[in-house]
From TrEMBL:
It comes from the Bacteria. The keyword Thylakoid does not apply. This is Nicotinamide riboside transporter PnuC. It is found in: Cell membrane. The chain crosses the membrane at residues 20-36, 43-62, 68-85, 106-127, 133-153, 160-176, 182-200.
Length: 211
């Protein structure tokens, strides 16, 4: 048990106190954000925004540029989703409804995935880190989470599936890199995302018109 603890948390001996506190705060806010997301609450955006801003700082020092790109995108999507959910949706209650992705959404998802893969790869090449093993899963994870976050803002049921796939990749990546708290966060995010998918699907079925 002691060996497992040392394996997971040993790398934190090399962290500064500031980094430890920042990661802990980002993890807590990330958990709060995904819980609000499961409840279909707009509060997911301010909590997620602060968490993402903290992670941008940390991920730059951790040299995980794909995930840094994701969190930069999260900042934009948090602002976009926040405005969308509190502004436009107040004028049109239909926009508050959970829906499934359309054929047009599939096309948009494909474009977002491809563009994000190219963008994340470019960042790794720019920092001359593309040869590191972690760059490849990090880049794929970037594409999946970009799509999932965009679908979340659109209140599409399938957002959870992309977020689950991205988190599954993130879990071993962060543990192997020595960032156990963030790895644990992604385990929690995966579990909540599974429940979130079930909850949104139930809501969608309950609101479906009678045939």
């Amino acid at each position: 048990m002691r060996d497992l603890f040392d394996l997971l948390f040993g790398p934190y001996q090399n962290y500064t106190l500031t980094e430890k506190i920042l990661e802990a705060v980002a993890v807590v806010l990330g958990i709060v954000s995904v819980l609000y997301s499961k409840r279909n609450s707009v509060l997911l955006y301010p909590t997620g925004l602060i968490s993402s801003l903290i992670y941008i700082y940390l991920l730059y020092h951790w040299q995980l540029y794909g995930d840094l790109t994701i969190n930069s995108y999260y900042v934009y999507m948090s602002i976009y989703g926040w405005v969308l959910w509190t502004g436009q949706y107040k004028k049109n209650n239909d926009c508050l409804k959970i829906t499934k992705i359309s054929p047009k959404d599939y096309l948009n998802c494909s474009l977002i995935f491809i563009i994000s893969i190219i963008f994340a790869s470019t960042i790794y090449i720019f920092f001359d880190k593309f040869g590191h093993w972690w760059s490849y899963p990090d880049i794929i994870m970037t594409g999946l989470l970009f799509v999932g976050t965009w679908l979340l803002a659109k209140r599409k049921l399938e957002n959870w599936l992309f977020l689950i796939a991205g988190d599954v990749i993130a879990i071993p990546l962060f543990f192997i890199k020595g960032y156990a708290l963030t790895g644990i966060l992604n385990i929690f995010l995966t579990i909540i995302a599974i429940y979130g998918y079930k909850a949104w699907k139930k809501t969608l079925l309950n609101n479906a018109p009678v045939q």
